[in-house]
Design a protein that fits this description.
Elements (H helix, E strand, L loop, with lengths): L7 H5 L3 H12 L33 H15 L2 H4 L6 E7 L8 E8 L2 E8 L5 E8 L2 E5 L2 E5 L3 H5 L7 E7 L5 E5 H7 L1 E5 L4 E11 L6 H8 L7 H10 L4
Antiparallel strand pairs: 1-2, 1-4, 2-3, 3-10, 4-9, 5-6, 7-8, 7-10
Helix pairs in contact: 2-3
Length: about 240
């Protein structure tokens, strides 16, 4: 929201499109701005000269609660998204081998924390991979050149076959398991519905040796998310007993 444009609720509604765009605003470098009444769902366009509201609007409690669940926790992690040193924008390669221009995919890092954001900004379904970044300018000696990075390089991941990564989707709360080698060689395969968004955070590195069968679990899950990878591993271990 700002006084010069139509209100957010008027432009984007109250559903997945609004929350996807709001998520992008909060997870890109720079300074995100919420306008007066945006979180409450007010539709009146305020001018800079306004001293009070002219419409008698009621707070949309469902909208407020969804902000509290999906948006506010990201605002508390602005340190992870605000910088540009490790920011990378990726091309989303669709099933036909082209680039899906309506999918915004980017990653960032802060210390040991990582984040990968993927948002589908159209009313359709799409599937594809996040693997290669868009070209960006980097200084090499006295000149500059266009370079690219892979997803694994952007997130600082290892390619050891015994290394696996557990990460959580902030939007759904589900955890995912991927091998470091898979992420290095093929990137990440994703399917997205209309205006759907993923924010993959809380990345942690684990190893498949020492009796913990992460490789077997990764094959069993085949990319699916679960409420807890640790619990899924425990259930897999007890499967012969069951």
């Amino acid at each position: 929201n700002n006084p010069d444009e139509r209100t957010a609720i008027d432009q984007f509604g109250k559903g997945d499109k609004y929350f996807g765009i709001c998520t992008v605003m909060l997870t890109l470098p720079g300074l995100p701005m919420f306008g007066h009444g945006q979180i409450e769902g007010f539709a009146e366009k305020y001018g800079m000269e306004y001293q009070r509201a002219y419409w008698d609007e009621q707070v949309d409690q469902y909208l407020v609660e969804r902000h509290e669940r999906e948006i506010f926790p990201l605002a508390h992690k602005r340190y992870l998204f605000a910088g540009v040193e490790h920011f990378l924008l990726y091309e989303f390669a669709n099933a036909a081998g082209g680039v899906a221009e309506d999918v915004y995919a980017y990653s960032n890092r802060f210390g040991d924390e990582r984040a990968l954001v993927i948002y589908h900004n159209t009313f359709a379904e799409v599937r594809g991979r996040v693997q290669q970044s868009a070209a960006f300018s980097q200084k090499a000696g006295d000149e500059r050149a266009l370079v690219t990075r892979t997803l694994a390089e952007g997130l600082g991941l290892q390619s050891d076959e015994n290394v696996f990564y557990i990460f959580r989707d902030h939007v759904t709360g589900l955890e995912y398991l991927r091998s470091g080698r898979e992420l290095h060689e093929g990137g990440m395969y994703v399917e997205l519905g209309a205006y759907k968004c993923h924010v993959f955070v809380d990345w942690r590195e684990v190893r498949g040796d020492g009796g913990r069968q992460y490789g077997q679990l990764a094959g069993f899950l085949a990319g699916r998310g679960v409420p807890s990878v640790d619990e899924a591993l425990h259930e897999l271990f007890l499967q012969p007993l069951y």
